[in-house]
Specification:
Elements: H1 34-45, H2 53-60, H3 64-76, E1 80-85, E2 94-98, H4 100-112, E3 121-122, H5 123-132, H6 142-148, H7 156-168, E4 171-175, H8 182-188, E5 196-200, E6 202-205, E7 208-211, E8 236-240, E9 243-246, E10 258-260, E11 265-267, H9 270-273, E12 278-281, H10 291-297, H11 299-304, E13 306-310, E14 316-320, E15 324-329, H12 339-343, E16 347-350, H13 356-369, H14 376-386, H15 397-412, H16 420-430
Helix pairs in contact: 1-3, 1-4, 2-3, 13-15, 15-16
């Protein structure tokens, strides 16, 4: 939908995107307790000598009318004092400063939680928003799949299997010999989804704050692609669907809340940050924890679409599990999990070694990109010499071989030509000889 100047009026009630969270019109509509908001406002006021309603609204990402309500309540409680106008214009905002009691109130609030910044959203609001922007609602077309896989040499049969799996928004297991593009395929899923989603700065659960927005994960929409709208809830950031990739470092602890006992703030686990996007587990089976244990941890999320997290107080709460989960492994599925666990991985796709034609196509593509000349005759002779018996071609071989050729020729001041002799030299320099 196109943005028009008329939509910049303050009285417009129809958002650009029906999924866009609307700004709260009252403290009750924030989904947060007034006492929580007052403590947060006091901590924001303690950041500098004086504060105005405009500054507080910007800091807490709330409408100015709500910032004024919070300021009036703090003044009423003798925690905040007026210090005159912020400027010479009589229409300027009034400056406020914390009183002695207000400073102690802010310190006490900080001892409870040092979180200062945008007001969090409620858990209920987060769950509703994830449902509104579910990855299951975005259709992946054949054209978009082919576009996202551009540059990868894959068989038609493999692409035909990938399409329905990616479109399902469910779990996928990519397995097969190493070095044949499983990770590359998984990473290309980031290009499949074009819709944006709305991500909160933080979530409030039982008075506790869970930090959610992560610059390493969430990519905000900026510039011409952004959807400016005056009545949008500024506690949410419009972002591209996230893609989170983990590997051997993944442990069961990373799938739970991280409690930072210094500031008394929680950090959302990696799979929760991937909500509405893609979660890639690369090198599945190489983690410090057994793959069966990881699958057992995810049986409920993969099967039911929700997960349970636990605060350090022991309080458990339910969160949505709405993401495309892609497992990539070199290990045979039977060695990863029992049948019950494998049943939770909805799509199991074998990524095989390349055929002769696919290998030669990959080789020529890399050679062209590296400006290395290679003749069809030499390349076919080389293939026949090396790939026979138990020696199978792999998709990564051409790049490794041609990298050696390029480096060797540059070092020796030679033209970049992958002659049969040079290919033999590269083979010996790159691969171990048994």
């Amino acid at each position: 939908m196109q943005y028009s100047p008329e939509q910049n009026r303050q009285d417009v009630a129809i958002p650009l995107d029906p999924r866009m969270p609307m700004a709260p019109a009252s403290l009750e509509e924030t989904g947060l307790e007034s006492s929580f908001l007052l403590r947060l406002a006091a901590k924001c006021a303690a950041e500098q000598d004086t504060i105005t309603a405009s500054h507080l609204a910007d800091r807490m990402k709330l409408p100015k009318v709500l910032a004024n309500i919070l300021i009036k309540e703090l003044v009423k409680l003798a925690l905040l004092e007026a210090r005159g106008l912020a400027g010479e214009d009589v229409r300027s905002d009034i400056r406020y400063a914390l009183s002695a009691n207000g400073l102690e109130y802010a310190r006490a609030a900080s001892r409870q939680s040092q979180y200062v910044g945008p007001a969090p959203v409620s858990l209920d609001a987060f769950c509703r928003q994830v449902s509104l922007q579910s990855i299951h609602d975005e259709r992946v077309t054949p054209e978009r799949l082919i576009e996202s896989l551009e540059g990868l040499v894959l068989s038609d049969s493999l692409v035909e299997k990938l399409g329905p799996a990616m479109n399902s928004g469910r779990s996928i297991l990519l397995y097969g010999p190493p070095g044949n593009g499983k990770t590359s395929i998984a990473e290309r899923t980031s290009q499949l989804f074009r819709q944006t989603i709305f991500v909160p700065h933080a979530i409030e659960v039982g008075g506790h704050v869970i930090s959610f927005f992560d610059e390493a994960v969430h990519q905000p929409i900026a510039g011409a692609d952004a959807k400016p709208y005056p009545k949008a809830d500024q506690r949410w950031i419009e972002c591209r669907r996230p893609v989170v990739k983990t590997g051997g470092e993944l442990t069961l602890d990373l799938l739970d809340l991280t409690f930072n006992d210094g500031p008394n703030v929680y950090e959302a686990p990696v799979h929760l940050k991937a909500s509405g996007g893609v979660f890639i587990i690369d090198d599945f089976g190489r983690q410090q924890v057994a793959p069966q244990s990881l699958i057992n941890r995810w049986i409920v999320p993969l099967e039911r679409g929700y997960d349970f997290l636990t605060l350090h107080t022991g309080k458990k709460f339910k969160v949505p599990f709405d993401e495309l989960v892609v497992f990539s492994t070199n290990i045979a599925p039977k060695d990863l999990s029992d049948e019950a666990g494998l049943r939770r991985l909805k799509y199991k796709i074998f990524v095989n070694n390349p055929s002769r034609d696919e290998y030669i196509q990959i080789f020529k593509s890399y050679a062209g990109g590296a400006a290395i000349d290679v003749s069809d005759i030499d390349l076919n002779h080389f293939y026949d010499r090396k790939y026979h018996g138990t020696m199978l071609a792999s998709c990564y071989h051409p790049k490794y071989i041609l990298d050696f050729v390029g480096s060797y020729c540059e070092f020796n001041g030679m033209p970049k030509v992958a002659s049969l002799d040079m290919l033999e030299r590269a083979w010996e320099g790159v691969f171990t000889l048994e």
